[in-house]
Structures are given as structure tokens and as C-alpha cells.
Amino acid sequence: MLKKIPIAAQLSIYILSATAFIFIIVYSYNLIVMRAFFSEQLELKANVIAKLNLKKIEFSIKSIEKVGMGIVQYTENADLDSISLHTFLRSVIKNNSELYGSTIAFEPYLFDASVKYFSPYYYKKNHKLLFEDLAAPEYNYPEWQWYAAPKQAQKNLWSDPYYDEGGGNILMTTYSMPFYRNVKGNKVFAGVATCDLPLEWLKTLFSEIATNENCIPFLLRKDGKFIAHIDSSLILSKSIFQLADELGDTTLSRIGKRMTDGESGSISSVKLFTDIDSYFFYAPIQSSGWSFGIVFPKDIFNKELDKLNRAIILIAAFGLILLFLIILFATRAIALKLKTVVESVEKIANGQLGEGQRTIKALIEKDKEHFSSEGSKNESKDESIVLIKAMKKMSDNLLSFISYVQKTSVLVSESTSKIESSSKKLEQTAVEQFASTQEVSSTSNEISTTSNSLAQSMINLTEKASTVSMFAKTGKSNLLLMEEAMKGLILATQSISTKLSIINEKTNKISNVLGAINKISDQTNLLSLNAAIESEKAGEYGKGFSVVAREISRLADQTAIATQDIETMINEMHVAVSSGVMEMDKFRKEVLNNSGEVSNLTLNLTKIIDQMNELFPEFETVSEATGSQALSASQIFEAMSQLALTSKQTRDSISEFSLIISQLNKAVQTLHSELEKFNL
């Protein structure tokens, strides 16, 4: 699919895909790390906030306890009277803004033997200091829990929070402290001092915590009832166990049990009061027996993480767009150069070498600065520029090569035409040589036959001469026969001499033919050498020419060798024939002389008979010469037969050479037609 679109788009897609893949991996890793980091930060933040607010609550309680301890110390050690006690209580309420009210309640008749109850109570309401006497008989404060419990326990106690209906229906808790006085040297229980702590500030504190920290803080009494919660309907109306039963949440019930047991701890993943996964921290307030808990929903953390993720995605999207624009700009620049290269290559592929080269040159002329020469300081390392420079160099070399091949093809075509013409002439000469060789062979056969016949005649003549020598004295009548025989011998020698002359002329003609063959062979060798040189220049395209040139050279060498062999045999034959001619001339002269002598012998029989004995050795010499001549004639015949066979082979080789030249000419024409496709 991608192969059908431009390379610039492919490159953009590949780079963007790789970048997006890397971004997804980094984003996924970052998401995991950030989740762990945010979760860790959330737990750390929750612990800090919880402990900080726990310290605030404990500080308020501790401050009330310190005030209470001051009241107890004053009550136990001071000389008390009604005025000083009232003055002290008013001062305590005025100087402690966190304190709602305070009383010092004495045991019956202990403060004043004439008064049963003494319990002045000062409190603040609407920024006014008010007084209320709790010593009314109908109130009967010794029966109240805030008095009876610490008296019985003999230790300081915090009461469970409650709504003070008389004090404006505000939520408060009372810190009750038993005090003792010396009566007649004995330390006796004297009464209970109280400090009322309003808990409205808890509502404000928890509201601020919930708003600022996006969490749910709450405070439990010992029995599990809510003292403080952002849902005011739960305060002192329900316990955490009742809420757990209503919600069917066993986890909430287990957490309530831990908190009322005074345990502390945290839970990293829990759903409390909502369906949102949350982090929960809880710890007891040791002095009051209460338990503080705070729930941090993780959706806030998720929102922050989502916000961060959206920011990362937006930045990544912007980065991808910017990267796309940069890639698009870069790839378009590269693609523009590649497009020009492709156009040039297409033109070169279509045979328009000149057009392709001009296209590359035009691109280089447009940007000369980047297309600096090789080895210069400003030489560009841009692969596209290197490719264009290589394409230009290739087109220049290809143009030069094609031009050279075209010129070479013309030269080869001319050479093959000349070789073809020479081969035709050589073939014609070979045919003539073969015909001449056949004639010479036939003539040499006749000479051989004649020489054999002559040799046989000479043998017979020798025998007859011997007979004549034996019967010369009685064979005068036979002289006539000898004269006739001498005449026949003259005719035979004339015939042999004539035929030997013909053989000599033929051998001279054969020598001329062999000289022409040698010249043609030398010219063929020269042409094959030129063809081999041109084929080497043509490189890969000239391998076929090289094979043909080697074959031509081989045939020319074979022809030259065969011609030299023939020339050697012809020279030998020429020498033998010349010798035979000389011998025959000599023999003919001797026969003529002898025939004259025979004529004279007819006139002077006695002189002839006397000289017959001298003539007999001469006949033996002639017989031997005739035998030698017959042997030479046989050798000439054999040599001419071999020459005829060689001439036939030469004719066949030249025919094959002509066929190869014809094929070479066709190959050159095909090469020329292919080269015509290139437009220079």
C-alpha cells in the first residue's frame, strides 16, 4: 500500500509512526511512573494533612487541659472566698478565647458550712460574659455525669460531646477535673472544676480541610458516634457502625472498630462514604479517647494526572504537527531532487541521453553552491546531492560510452564489410587453387604413369642393349629396330620434357596463388587484430566481437600454416621437376646424339658395333635416372594429392569464415539499430 505513494509521504509516515510509537512508549512509562509518584505524593500529603489537623485538635484540647490544671491548682492552694473565686473564674473566661465556660463545683457544705451547694458558672455568649449559678437545688449538680464521673474515677475526664441546649444549642464537650483540699490535715475530695470546650470550631476546621484539601475528615467518640463530619446530619445522630449497617459496608464497620479501639494506621485503597477509590488515615486523640479519620478520594489525583496527561498529549500533538511540517519541508526538498533524478533516469531509459543529461545539469545550475566540486571545502555531504552528482557523472560516462560504441560500431561494420569482401575473394582464390591443384594432381599422375612406363622401357632397353651387345655382331638387322626404338625414345623424352615444363609452370602458378593466400592471411590477421582491439575498447558490448576476432585470427593462422606447408611442398616439387627437366633435356640431347650415332651406325655398322660395348653402361645410367625420375614423379603425385586435400580444407575453412563474417555483420547491424534508439 505504502509503495504506491510518493517517497516523501512514505518517509513522513515512517518517521511520524516511529515518533508516535516512541511517544506512546514514553507516555505509557510516564503514566505508570506518574501514577506511582502521585499515589506516593497523595499518601504523603494525606499523612501530613491528617497529622497537622490532628495536632490542631490535640493542641486545642491540651490548651483546655492546661487551663483546667490552672483552675485546679488555684482551687486546691488558694484561700478561697466567694468574691475571689468569682473574680478568678471571670478572669479565666476572659483570658481564654477558646474556652466557652467554666465552673468550680464544691462538695455539699464544703465551701460554706451554711450553704449546701456552691457552683458558680461563667460562660460567653454573643461575646458577652454571663453568669449562671448551678447551685439551685432543682439542678442538683452532684448527680450530673460531668461531676459524678470524675469524682468516682478520681481522675480528669473528657465528657462525650453534647449539645448544650441552655447555652445556645451548641456542640461542646466538658473537661472535668476533681480537686482536693486539706481538711484537718487530710486530703479530701473537695469538688470538680470544669472547662467547657465548644466544638463549633471543628465544623469550621473540617469544612476548611474538606474544601482546601478535597477530602472528608471526621471525628468519632468512644462509642463510634460522629463528633464532626462534613455531613452535619451525622453528628451525634449516628455512629459509624450504624452508617456501615445502612450502607452494607463491612469495611467501614471494621475501620470503626479499629478507631474506637484506639488504633492508628492507614489504608492505601478503600471506598468510604463514596464509591470513589480513596486513601484513608486514622489516629486516636489519646487524652479525650476520640479518634480522628480523614478520607482522600483519589479522583482528585486522577484529575490532576488527567490534566497533566492532557497537557502532555497536547504538547505531543503540537510536537508531531511541528515534526510533520519539518519532515514535509525536508522530504519535499529531497523529493523535488529525486523527482528531477527520476525524470532524468526515465529519459535516459527511453534513450534520450542528451535530454536526461540536460535535466541533471539544469538542476545543478539552479543550486551551484551545494553542488561544489569533489574535494573542495564546501563539498556537500547531502546524499541527494551526492546521488545527483553521481547521476550526472553516470550520464556523462554513458553518453560518452554510447557515442564511442556508435563510432566503434561504424568502424566494425566497415571492417566486417572489408573482411567479407576479402573472404569472398579468398574463397574464389581457394576455389581456383583447388581446381589448379586438381589439374596439377592429374598431370603429376600422368607424369608418374609416364615415368613408370619410361622406367620400364628403360629396363627393357637395357635388356635389349645387353642383348644387342651380345648379338651386335650378328644383329645388324636389328639396328633398324634399334633406330625405331631410338625414335620412340626421342618422342617419349620430348613428351616427358613437355609435361615436366607444364608441371613447372603449374608449380609457379601455385606459388603465385600461395603468395596471394599469404597476403590475404596477413591482411586477415591485421583485421582480426583491429577487431580485437576495438572489442576490448567496447568492454562488455565487445565480447562477441572478441570471440569472432579470435576465430578469424585462428583460421588465418591455420591458412597461413597450410599455405606455408603447400609452398614448401611446391618448392620441393619445383626443385624436383626442374631437376627432372634438366635431366630429361640432358637425356634428350644424349638420345639425339645417340640417334645420330645410330644413323651413322647404319652407315658405318662396324663402327657402331665397336661402340656398342661402350654404349651399354650409358644405358644403365639412363635406366637409373629414369627410375629416379619415376620415384620423383610418385612423390610429386603424393604431394599434389596432399595439396589438393589441403586446398579443399582451405576452401571449406574460408566458406566457414565467410559464414562467421556474415553473422558478425548481422550482429553489427543489430548493434547499430539498438544504438539508434539512443538520442544523443
Question: What can you see in these coordinates?
Answer:
The chain has 680 residues and is of the alpha+beta class. Among the domains are: 78-198, PAS domain (Beta-Lactamase); 408-495 and 561-675, Helix Hairpins (Orthogonal Bundle), CATH 1.10.287. It is 70% helix and 12% strand. The chain contains 12 helices and 12 strands. It has helices spanning 7-77, 82-95, 145-153, 200-213, 240-247, 250-260, 298-349, 353-366, 383-471, 476-538, 543-603, 605-675; strands at 101-106, 120-125, 128-133, 157-158, 162-164, 170-183, 186-198, 216-220, 226-229, 265-270, 278-285, 290-297. The strands form 2 sheets. Strands 1, 2, 3, 4, 5, 6 and 7 form a 7-stranded antiparallel β-sheet that branches. A hairpin with a 2-residue loop joins strand 2 (120-125) and strand 3 (128-133). The longest helix has 89 residues, at 383-471. The chain is rod-shaped.
Gross morphology is rod-shaped
- The fraction of residues in strands falls at 5-15%
Q: Any idea of the CATH class of the domain at 408-495 and 561-675?
A: Mainly Alpha
User: What's the tally of helices?
Assistant: 12
* DSSP summary, beta strand count: 12
Over all CA atoms, what is the radius of gyration?
A: 73 Å
What is the element string, with H for helices and E for strands?
HHEEEHEEEEHEEHHEEEHHHHHH
Provide the structure class.
alpha+beta
- The amount of helix comes to over 70%
Query: What CATH architecture of the domain at 408-495 and 561-675 would you give?
Result: Orthogonal Bundle
CATH topology of the domain at 408-495 and 561-675: Helix Hairpins
Poorly predicted runs are: none
